Amino acid sequence: ETGVTQSPTHLIKTRGQQVTLRCSSQSGHNTVSWYQQALGQGPQFIFQYYREEENGRGNFPPRFSGLQFPNYSSELNVNALELDDSALYLCASSTGPPGAYEQYFGPGTRLTVT
Amino acid sequence: KNEVEQSPQNLTAQEGEFITINCSYSVGISALHWLQQHPGGGIVSLFMLSSGKKKHGRLIATINIQEKHSSLHITASHPRDSAVYICAVYNAGGTSYGKLTFGQGTILTVHP
Fold first, then answer.
1. Residues from chain B contacting residue A97 (CB–CB below 8 Å)
2. Looking at the DSSP assignment, which residues form a beta bridge with residue B48?
């Protein structure tokens, strides 16, 4: 077990609604990355936060936004939900970028948009 | 063509068999991760490597940077090894943070 937790574990929302997913990083980790994993696919990078600042973003629209708090926990917010947003959302914490530091993944939040 | 390609996509083995999963990538990288994902979603990091070979228990990972290729080997496979194995490459791409790009995963099923 990695010590990274996510909530909720499952969530059902309706198209057009907004959702907030939460991630509690492993103690001492100042970097968190968020990923979207569609069924049968590998994860896709959404964005990364380092010491409360967004310092990298993948090919996701602005309606995907995030926050990292002083205790290094973080949130992923998605506005105006679309059916294609249905996926497993994973966060991974580390002490630095994934080029040099092991990533510790949470169990994920499975979001279903109807 | 995806930046990271894994083969095979599905693999079935009998308990005790030696297993190899391959990962090829098309971009320059500075590190490669092998990850294991069990049903339900949780991902566990198995290896992070940038050259040569690493071993942990029955798992061995190798990488050839020049050939842009990595392999994950499982010796004496066991049904509990059944999972999805994912290769992910790290490329800073001129940025200060870099990002992981993932393969589509290899579904491994080991029968008793």
1. 90, 92, 97-98
2. B33
CA angle (A6 as vertex; B32, B6 as ends), nearest 5: 25
Asked if A30 and A72 touch (Cβ cutoff 8 Å), the reply is yes
- Contact between A93 and A4 under an 8 Å Cβ cutoff? The reply is yes
Q: Which residues of chain B have pLDDT under 50?
A: none
Chain A touched by B103 (CB under 8 Å): yes
SS3 content of chain A, % helix, strand, coil (to 5): 5, 50, 45
Q: Name the 3-class secondary structure at A100.
A: coil
pLDDT of residue B43: 92
> Residue A108: which of B31, B42, B98 has the nearest Cβ?
B42
3-state secondary structure B56-90: ECCEEEEEECCCCEEEEEECCCCHHHCEEEEEEEE
